[in-house]
Design goal:
three-stranded mixed β-sheet, 7 helices, globular
């Protein structure tokens, strides 16, 4: 099963501190899981966002007291946009769609920061002038993000589809 191989590759990349490789592979897991979970839903983007929102997002909202940052919770729309940016453009520069989804004004800077620490959502005023719109920082803990999606994908697959052999036409070679 290729899902198992992908998850093992992600874990190996994390252990070896190959964070971009781990992230890129991790961002493909919702595609695979969504295709299994919603085979009759047309459009890979729709499937991806739905799967992420139902299996990750609803458990990953900011804690109470962060109401002003609720709009910055990373939902399926944002993760799908990040997936497309990283895998198709080799960038994490927020497109107009991502800025619109987050409600970011043109006067604000939007920064996605990949880290190996914690995931956080923050606003900051670059020049200290709080009368202006703050810049927005979304710090994503690559390690936590990858491990979380891997665990959910693995559990979902084993609990719901133990007999389903996905992508059984792919030949995996022993590269060692």
């Amino acid at each position: 099963m290729i899902l198992k191989h992908l998850i093992n590759e992600i874990k190996s990349n994390l252990e070896n501190k190959n964070y971009l490789s781990a992230l890129a592979l991790t961002l493909t897991l919702p595609d695979i899981c969504a295709k299994i979970s919603y085979p009759n839903l047309n459009g890979s983007g729709k499937r991806y966002k739905r799967w992420y929102d139902e299996h990750i997002y609803k458990y990953d909202k900011p804690k109470a007291g962060l109401d002003d940052l609720e709009s910055l919770t990373i939902n399926g729309e944002i993760v799908y946009a990040l997936r497309n940016l990283l895998l198709h453009e080799g960038s994490l520069d927020a497109t107009e769609d991502v800025r619109k989804e987050l409600g970011v004004k043109n006067s604000q800077s939007l920064n996605f920061v990949l880290s190996n620490s914690i995931t956080s959502y923050s606003k900051a005023w670059s020049d200290g002038d709080k009368s202006k719109d703050p810049d927005i920082y979304i710090r994503i803990s690559v390690v936590d993000f990858c491990k979380n999606i891997c665990a959910v994908a693995e559990n979902l697959y084993h609990e719901n589809y133990p007999d389903k052999d996905i992508y059984n036409d792919i030949v995996l070679f022993d590269f060692e």
